[in-house]
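pasting for ref
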Amino acid sequence: MLQKIIRPLIDKKPADINKLIPEKVKNILIVKQHNQLGDMLCTLPLFAAIRKKFYNSHITLVASRDNYEVMNSTANRYLDRVILFAKSPISEYNRFFKNLKDRKYDIGIVPSTVSFSRTSHLINYLSGAKIRVGVKSADGRYNKNEYLLNLKSDFVWDKNKLHQTERFLEIGKLLNCNLSDKEKKEVKLFLSKEEMNFAKEFIDKNFPDKNKYILGFHLGARKIKNRWGLNNFLELIIKLYKKFNNYILLTEGPMDKEFTAKLNYDLISKGITTVTISFNIRLDAAILSQIDLYITNDTGPMHTASFVGTPLIALFGPTNGFEWGPLKQNQIYIQSPTSDINDIKPDMVFKKTIELLNKL
């Protein structure tokens, strides 16, 4: 029904980017309001490429409640403004569109790789952006909202086993936005001076012995199939503690409290104490940037740690590590030989941990 109403009103003429002068592009909108934390963070290289190309532009991001906090910071060098899109109550819609329409956008981008959100495409269209960029189809999956775009392409990603960061960058190439290999390695989640000071004070207070390793662990994941078993973590942590007498940091989200409580109970019975953090995404990220190694399931905190440069080992079961795994220096992933993450054995992770610590 919506297509029948809007489609006849849309100018079907493709956008001509040959006439686009980067220095004269004043406002750019990026709409990404429907994805999870990892998906948002994997878009950072695209944000960096857009900033590089359109260095004079004011760049606005539309984000959901799940991702607003991590991107909304004065430390963010890629974006100038983040607008929260909340689906209720109705008063929030009025406030949102008032904020959205306070600028005339030269370019609007919907970076979609996993799914195609009708809401995101509508927001992008209703913003009035002259050039509307996105995906026509991906790996044979047709985007039913592509009629709202005037600069689009068909993409083949799965066959080429492209990482999510590269998929987003391919969308940016429609605007001739590119990053060199060196520039890709430099993309990061920037943290403020205040956040870093908080983290350093936390580390000094809770982990005073600078001769000990600080090893971090994240036990949970939104998807059950992405959770490595608690007994696996318990066995691994005990083995590492016996070898290094290290400090142990646990990170937890709202859904992870049951796991960390159970693990702490079992560790205390072995005479092993831990420190658990659950501040906010950015403060947790700052603390993670100061530890020696992070071992985590395939989940949001894994991506956060990756983009602040924490050495880490990520554990992958049914999801492809080549597509979602960490990419920075001293960051690796272990892919289960089957789709069951628990077919990754603690001894395997222990050996990889030793190898990685020896490189640091």
